[in-house]
Amino acid sequence: MAIPALTCGANLYRRGATRRTLGLDVKKRNDVRKRNFVREKRRARRPPDSRRDGGATVNDSGAGAPPMIIRYGFRCRRCARETRCRLIEMQADYGVELGRDDETLELPWATPDGGPRYVDLKCEPERINEIEEANRFPELRDFLVFINSLSSHPGNGNTLEKGSGSGLQSAKCDAWMSSEIHPGEEIFEAPWKFGSYVDFFFTESAEVFRQSPQASVEAHEEFLKKIVALLKRVPELPASAEFLLRRCYFHEQGDLREGLYVTFYLFGFGQDERKARQQWAIAMNLARNAFAQLNSGHPPL
Predict the structure, then answer these.
(1) Minimal CB count within 10 Å: which of 99, 120, 201, 284?
(2) Which residues neighbour 178 within 8 Å (Cβ) at sequence distance 6 or greater?
C-alpha cells in the first residue's frame, strides 16, 4: 500500500513510495522526526550573529601553552556552560605606501639629546640590550634576533636575493598597550589591544632599487604576499597583522641612496590588558615562525 507524501526535515518522501522501497519503517521515521525537533530547538538558542558552520577558537593562554579548542554545540570551557562561541580569525594584510606624502625612513636615524638611535643588529647583535623595548618584551627581542640572523633572502631566485651577504635587517621598533579600538577592529569585541611595530629592510634594498625600482617593488610585494598567506593559515586568534611597504633613504659614505623598507604592525586583542598582551605574544611567535618557513624555502600552500 502506498504511503501519503510527508516532509521530515530536509527529506521529502514522494507519494506512491512504499516502506520497502524507502527502507524506512515507522520507528526510524519517528527517530528522524525526533532528531529534527532537537536540531530546531538548538537552532532557536543560537545567537543571531553566530555562524552556521563549525569552527574553533584559541583560548587566552600563554604564548607557550597549546591552544584550547572550542567548537560550536559543545560546552564552552571558558564560560562553563553550553554556548556557541564565535569564530575569531586572525586578520593579515599588506599595503604599498610610496606616495609623495607617505611616511619614509632615513638610515641611520637618531633622536636629539642623546636619545634612542639606530642599532645595527646585523653587524653587532650584542648591542640588542641597548634597545629598551627588546629588554621589556621577550617575544619582541626574539623576533629581532631572528630577523637579523637571516643570512639569505627567503625564496631562491627572487630579485632581492644578492648572495650570502643579503638578508633581513631591523631598523626600528616599539610596543604599547592601548584601549583605542578602531572601527575595523571591532570584530574582535575586545576593549584592549597590545600593539607593536618593527621596521625592517633587505640589506641589498638600495642596490636592487637603483638597478630597477619597479622590479624591487614587485619583489617586495611578492614577499609580503607569502608572509600574509602564511599568517592567514594560523589557528583562529584575536590578532591582526599588517605590512606596509614604504620608501627608505640610506646614508652611505656621504651619499643618499633610495630603497624600500617594510613596517610590520601586530596587534593582540583581549578583554583586559593581560589577555591582550598574551594574544600579542602568541601572534608574534607565529609571525616569527612564518618568516622561518619562508627562509627555509617552503612556499605557502
Answers:
(1) 99
(2) 192, 193, 194, 195
Looking at the whole model, is its pTM more than 0.70?
A: no
Asked if residue 203 and residue 105 are part of one domain, the reply reads yes
Total domains in the fold of the chain:
3
Q: What is the DSSP string of 77-122?
A: TTTTEE--PPP-PPEEEEEE--STTS-EEEES-B-TTT--B---TT
Cell digits of residue 254: 656621504
Residue 77 sits in which domain range? 45-87
Residue closest to 243 by CA, chosen among 90, 99, 102, 92? 92
Tell me the per-residue pLDDT of 7-40, one tens digit each, with 9 for 90 and over.
343 343 344 444 444 444 445 555 555 555 545 5
Determine, yes or no, domain membership for 1. no
| Contact between 281 and 268 (Cβ < 8 Å) | yes
User: 74 vs 200, which has greater pLDDT?
Assistant: 200
Quick check: is 258 in a domain? yes
- How far from 58 is each of 67, 77, 170, 187, CA to CA, in Å? 5, 11, 30, 16
| Cell numbers given for 268 | 593582540
As a whole number of angstroms, the distance between CA 241 and CA 90 comes to 8
Closest CA to 261 of 198, 212, 199: 199
101 and 64, same structural domain?
Answer: no
Distance CA 175, CA 170 (A): 15
Q: Does residue 199 lie within any of the structural domains?
A: yes
φ/ψ bin of 214: left (φ > 0), alpha (ψ from -120 to 50), beta (otherwise): alpha
